[in-house]
Specification:
Layout: H1 2-20, E1 25-29, H2 31-35, E2 41-47, E3 53-59, E4 63-69, E5 73-75, E6 80-82, E7 84-88, E8 95-100, E9 106-110, E10 116-121, E11 129-131, E12 150-152, E13 174-176, E14 197-199, E15 219-221, E16 240-242, E17 261-263, E18 289-291, E19 310-312, E20 331-333, E21 353-355, E22 366-368, E23 372-374, H3 376-379, E24 386-393, E25 401-403, E26 409-412, E27 415-418, E28 425-432, E29 440-441, E30 446-448, E31 457-463, E32 471-478, E33 487-492, E34 498-503, E35 514-517, E36 524-528, E37 534-540, E38 546-548, E39 557-561, E40 578-582, E41 590-591, E42 606-608, E43 617-618, E44 627-629, E45 648-650, E46 658-660, E47 669-671, E48 679-681, E49 690-692, E50 713-715, E51 730-732, E52 739-740, E53 743-744, E54 763-766, E55 769-772
Parallel strand pairs: 9-11, 11-12, 12-13, 13-14, 14-15, 15-16, 16-17, 17-18, 18-19, 19-20, 20-21, 22-30, 37-39, 39-40, 40-42, 41-43, 42-44, 44-45, 45-47, 46-48, 47-49, 49-50
Antiparallel strand pairs: 1-8, 1-10, 2-7, 2-9, 3-4, 3-8, 5-6, 23-27, 24-25, 24-28, 26-27, 28-29, 31-36, 31-38, 32-35, 32-37, 33-34, 33-36, 51-55, 52-53, 54-55
Length: about 775
Amino acid sequence: MRRFFLSFLLMLLAAGAMAQATPDIRIKTNIYAKEGPTNTFTLVLGAAEGHTGYADIKCSGGNSSEANIITAEYDSESMALLGTNIACQVNEEGVVEVFCDDDVVIDYLSCTGAEITSVEFKNPENIEILALEHNALESLDLTPFTKLQALYLNDNPFNRAPLTITGSKPTLQILEMSLIENVDPNFDIAGFPNLVVFDAMSTPGLQRLTPSACPNLQKLSIDNTSVASLDVRNNPNLYILNISETRIPSIDLSKSTKLQQFYATHSSAFNKDVKLTEIDVTHCPNLIYLFLNDNNLTSLDLTKCPALRDIYVRNNYLTSLDLTQNRDLINVFISGNCMDFNSLPIPQETWGDFEYKQRPLTVPGAYLAGAALDLTGKIVRPDMETFAAVFTVSEDNPELSVPLDESEYTFSNGVLTIKEVLADSVYASFFNAIFPDIELTTTKFRVKDAATFGQPDLAATMGNALTAGSPVKIYVGMKGATAAQPKQFFVDLGDGQLQPFQATGERTPAEANVTASKAKFGTMKLYVPEGEELTAFKIADFKLISLDLSNSRSLAELTLTGTALTKLDLQWNRCLQSVDITGNNFGADFTLAGANGSYGKNILSHICLSNNGMTAVKLNEPGSWNYIDLSHNQLTEFNFTDADYVQYLDVSHNSFETLKINYLGQLKTFYCNDNQLREIVLPETNVIETFNCANNCFTLATLPLPSSAGWTTYTYAPQAQIEIPTKGPGYNLSDQYVEADGQATVFTWKKADGTALTPGSDYTCDKGVTHFGDNTIGQTL
C-alpha cells in the first residue's frame, strides 16, 4: 500500500510539472471577439532538418491535438513554404500553446489573418522564418531572434509598444513590414548585411534608412514613410526602388544600372510638401516601369532607357519629352505638363494607352481688345491645321464655360484677336487632329479697353479706423518674386495715391515690406501690377474694420493677428495653404469653406484660429490638414473624422467635454488642456510625442495611461478638484480607482493640518470606498 501511494504521488508531481512547463510557443488572439465560438484559424509549423517530431497543441477551451512537425520545405509549384498545418479554435481566453518533444526544434511559424495580439517563444534564437501578417500584434521585440532569414509582419498595429528589430541579423534576407502603424524610431537596416528584400510601405514611423550596409538589396520599398534621405549608390543590384510619398527630395541613381522599376510619385496628402525637382535616369538602361507623377520636374531625359514600357509622369512641368528611343512603350501617361502641339510626343500605334492633356498655356492675365495674341510657336504644326474657339467664364462659377460667338474674334495661323471688351474672363481652346483626345487651352485672361489696360489690379481692401500719421506695417509676398528679381506693388494709404513697394519672395517676409504712415483717415488699398498675383499677406497688431481679399485668388499664406476683425470672407481664396488668424472676434460666424465646389481649399494644411471667441467654426476638407490650432476659444464640439494627416493639434482652453481623435494616426503634438474633458478617444495606434490634458475633469480611472503609448512628454496634472459632501461617515471614490501595470490607486486621507490619518484605525478603504472610524467624528479632513 505504501509503495502504491508513493507511485501515485510521483505521478501527480509529474503531471504538475507538465502543467507548469513553459510552452515552446504561446499565442494570444482576439479572434473569438470577431468570429465567436465557431472561430477557426490555421497555424503552420516547421522544424529544423533532423529535428522533426511531435508536438501537443493546446487551445483554450479544451481543444487539443497532437501534430507531427515536419521539415519546412519550399514548393516550387505553389511558390509557398510548406509545413505542418494545425487547425485551431479558441474560447474567450484566446490562447494557443505548443509543447514540443525534447528533440523538436521549431524554426518556422506562419499564422496570418488570425487576430493575433501577442506571440512568445521559449527559444527565439531557433526561428528562421516568421510570418505573422494581417494580425493585431500589440508589441514584438525581435532582438533575440538571431537566426532570422525571412520576416513577414505586414499589417499589424503594434499599439502597445513599437515594433523593435535590433541587434545583428546576419542571415536575414527578406524583411516585409508594410502597414506597420508604430515602429521603433531608431529602426534601421544597417545590422542586416545580407538583406535582399525590404518592404516598409505605409510605415509612417520609419524615419531613416542606411541601405549602404546592405549591398545585396534587390528590392527597396519605403513609400509613405518619413524617410528624408537615401543613398543607394552601394546597392548596384537594385531591381525595384519605391520612394513615393517620402520626404526624399533627390536621389542619385548613377549606380543603379540594373534598376527595372522606379517609383517616386507625390500624389497624396502625406509628405505633400516634398517634391522631386530633377531626376537622372540616364544610367538606368534596364528601366521598364517609371512612376514620377505629381512632382516639380521641368525636364526628363529618357533617351538612355530603351526598355521602358510604362511611363507615368503626370502633373509635372515638363516642356518637352523625347520618346523616339523608347520603342517598347505600351502605356504613356504624361497629362498635366507644360507641353504644346509642337513639343508633345506624337502618339504611336503600338502604344496601348496615351494620356496627354496638358496644363493651360500661360498667357498674360490682361489683353487689350483688338490686339493680336500670337501663339504660333505653341499651337501651329506645319503638318496639320489647328482650330480655335474662345469661351467666357465667370469667376464666381469657373466650372461653367460659355462659347463666345465666332463673330467676336478672329483666328488665323496661330494668331487670336478678340474684338471687344468682355465682362467675364475668357480662355482660348485649340484643337489639332494629331492629338484628337484633348483641347489645348490658355490660362484665363481679361479683355480690357485702352483706359484700363496696363493699370494695377486691386488685390486687398482694408477698412480701418487709423488716423493720419498712424504707423502702418504690412507683409506682402508675390508670385515669382525673388531677392534677385523683386516684384513691385502699390499701396493707397488713404489719400488715393499709389505708393510703390517691393516684394522679394512669394512667402510671408520676416520683416514688413510696407513700413509707412497713414496718409489720412479712410480705407487703404493694395494693388499689384496687371497680371501679377498676391501670394502672401500679413497684418499684425493694427485694427481692421473690414478686409476684402476676394480678388486675390492665388493667395497662399494669410496672417492676421490682433486685428479685431468680426467678419472675414475667404470663400474665394482657394489657393490658401496657411492661415494664421489669431486675436480677433468671430463668434460663430467664421468659415473656411469655399464658395462652391470649385473653390474648395484642398491644399490648406496649416490652420491657426486661436483666441477668436469662436463658439463654432467650419474648416476646409480635413484630408489636407497638418497643423490645427483652435485654442483659446469657446468650442464645445468639433469633428476630426478623416483628419488622417494632422501632426499638431491644439484645442486647449475651450469647453470640450468629449474628444474623439481616433482618426489622427499621425498626431505627434496634442494639447487639450484646460477644457472640461471627461472622455477622450485616442488613435488605436499613436505616435504622440507631446500630450497635455491637464486641467480637465478626468478621474484616475479615465486618464489615458502613459504606459500604453510611451509619450515623451505627458502632462496630466492637475485635474479638476473632486467635489464631495462636506459632512458624512464616509465617501465612495471608486471612480478614482484603477489598476494598471501592477499598480493601483492609493487613497490617503489627511486632517486639515496635513496630518495623515492612520488606515485601519482612523478609516477603512476598499478600492476607494472609505468608512471613517469613531475617532474622526467632528474632525475636518
